[in-house]
Structures are given as structure tokens and as C-alpha cells.
Amino acid sequence: MVEAKVEAKVETNVEFNPYDWKIHEDPYPAYAALRRWAPVYHNEELDFWALSRHADVLAAFRDPERYSNEFGVSLEKEQIREARTVMSFLAMDPPEHTRVRALVNRGFSPRRVTQLEPKIRALANRYIDAFIENGECEFVDAFAGRLPMDVISEMLGVPQADRDDLRGWADLVIHREQGNPDVPPEGMAAAAMMLKYFAEFVTQRRKSPADDLTDALIAAEIDGDRLADADIIAFLFLMIIAGNETTTKLLANAMYWLWRHPEQRDIVRNDPTMIANWGEETLRFDPSSQLIARTTATDVELHGCKIPAGARVALLIGSANRDERVWDRPDQYDIRRETRNSLSFGQGTHFCLGASLARLETRVSLEELHRRIPDFEIRPEGAVRMHSSNVRGFAALPIEFGR
Question: CA 253, CA 287: separation in Å to the nearest integer?
Fold first, then answer.
């Protein structure tokens, strides 16, 4: 860990708006200013606070008594009101969180995840087969946006015919309009469609069980305690959003940053065992989940500032992962870096349940992409970033490669 002498002075003229499309293009200069001048930042207009330093974000992750999940992990007011319905146990604190997560763990077991590797590899090659003869593709549409949805859908038992609809709804749920901090009407309608779909899906599954994660969740039991249908529906919703979109963005981010750093690509070419590191450094350097919100359960004193009870607090993962107090050369993309202090999957009670699945999908996908199209090039003029307050990545990323 790097001990850097960084000024602790708190200024009030630093501005940070997670809904600003300029921030979506490159939030990292703003994060650096926050870490230096406003480690406890308050946006009065949008009524939220933000923590940007690694130590503070880590401490908040590990302190559910002061930083509560009761109102979910989104800053948006509409999602706060519907937190439990759409965020499953992400909108719970212990002991309720402990009970529901333990039941979910019965279905979402390490063994179930590990057994997916051959299927993920086969899916990756199926999608590469579909575009490799063309010498080009739009990577998000042809690969990154499809493989994670297929993997999650296979786990849940979602029919192939329904997956494009779910992917479209998921995109609408996380998209944000310029200047609008709340979920747009199209996103709210898409969320309602997803909830209706999964309510019907669970009802049908109770009548006709199958050997998949949905059936495992229905059957999960600890000392006579079972998940209610509402808990199962919320978890399925969460899986489609968190388990799909973040991995989609991670895959495209990994391709983009390796392309931007030819010396790092040379490392992978010379030593393919570094492919897992390629994914891990991308998670640190440019994580698809940029922030996670909490609500203060009590007043919190930090860096001479008082965050009042009931305040929304954004834990800036993207900033914490570039904190100069933790990493040497934090703004340098280096796949040989030790990344164990990365906060991309959170920490503590709410450490990401799907971390092992995301890592498996990413490693296997990058292995197959590197094996089959190692000399890809990106057409930057066609790259389009998505607009979201917390998910960072590409809506489109055109690539080309030798036939």
C-alpha cells in the first residue's frame, strides 16, 4: 500500500454531478479533485453526499450500522421508493439481509458457478463464429451484450426467445437522460415489464419445476425458512440488471483499454496467463460499477464534516480504485499490478454475490477473444458511451480484425 502525502483541506468549490454526460465521458479528473479537496462532498442541489477516498469507501462498506442499505443502492428517488422490489437483499440490512442471502446462497452455490465454464466457453465461440468471417463487428451488440445475458438466462432457465426483450428492458432501466437525475418514464415502464415477466415466470416454475437456479431458489430452505415469491422475483430482477449489464460493460472496457495500451497487449501476447490480470486491472482502472449508494442511519462525522442521519451517500468506487494513497501510478493501466485492494465488488456484508461468476465470464471470454482475434483494432469514431449515474461503459464499440 502506498502512503502518499495528500492535502486534507476541504474546499466547497469542487463540483460533481453523476448525471452530467461530460462526467460519463471521463469522471476521473473530477474524482481526483474530490479526493484532494472535498473527500466528504455535498451536492446541495441534488441532495446527496459522496465519499471518494479508498479508506472512507472501504470503511462505509464495512459499517452497515451507520451506512444502511435499507433504501437500496441507487441515488435515484424512484428507485429508493421501490428499493426492496427491484434490489432484493441489496435493500436489506442484517439480520434480514443475512437470512435472505443465506437462502439465496443455497441456490447460487460456488459449485453451480464453476460448472458453467464449459458452457461459457462454448457460448463465447458461438458468438465469435457468427462474426469472425466478416472481419469486423459491433462488439457490444455481437458479443459483450449477448454472452452475459445468455449465461444468466441459462442459470435462471429463461427461454432463448425472451432474452432480447430482457436485455432491452435492462438497458432502459439503467439509461439516464441528460439533466434528469431520476429514472426516465421508459425505464420505469421497462422495470414494470421485467417484474411482471418474472412474477409470471416464478408462478409457472412452481407448477413445472426444472433443474436451474430459479428452481433451486424456490426449493431453498434453512430450518423450515423459505424465500417468498417477492424475494425470488426481486433476486431474478437483480440478476438481469447487476449480473448482466455490469459484465457487458466490463468486457467492452477490457477490450478498449488493452487496445489503448499496446505495451499491455504485448504482455498478453507474450504470456496468455496474464489474461485474468487483464480483467482484474480493468475492474480496478475503469470499473463498470462506479458508485454504490447508502443511507446514513446516524449522523456521521468525517474529515471535519457532519453527514446527517437519513442522507444519501454515494460511495465512489471508481475514485477509490484510483486513490494515490493505495496505489502507485493509479492512473496508469498496468495488468501486472496487484489489485487485491480493488473495491469493484464491494466489501463486507454486501460483497457482490456474483463476483466469482463475473470473473469467470470475463476470463473465459477474454481467453477466447485473444485466441481467435488477437489483433483486433477499435474504430474510436464509432464508440458510443452509455449514460448512467452508476454504470460506466460502452453502448457501442466497433472493432475490426484480420479475416
Answer: 8
**CA-to-CA dists, residue 14 to 43, 44, 74, angstroms:** 10, 12, 22
Give me the residue spans of the domains in the chain. Answer: 21-400
DSSP 304: T
List C-alpha distances in Å: 13 to 10, 37, 157, 302: 9, 9, 51, 18
Encode pLDDT of 172-218 as tens digits. Answer: 877 767 666 667 788 888 888 998 999 999 999 998 888 888 998 88
Tell me the CA distances in angstroms from 273 to 175, 267, 320, 333, 360, one per residue in order: 35, 10, 27, 18, 14
| Cell matching residue 127 | 458468438
> What are the C-alpha distances in Å from 168 to residues 23, 179, 386?
24, 22, 14
Question: How high is the pLDDT of residue 127?
Answer: 97
Residue 399 sits at φ, ψ, to 5 deg, of -125, 160
- In degrees to the nearest 10, what's the CA dihedral of 21, 27, 31, 32? -130
Instruction: Tell me how far apart the alpha carbons of residues 247 and 147 are, in angstroms, rounded to a whole number.
Output: 9
Q: Which CATH superfamily is domain 21-400 in?
A: Cytochrome P450 (1.10.630.10)
Q: Which helix (H) or strand (E) holds 325?
A: none
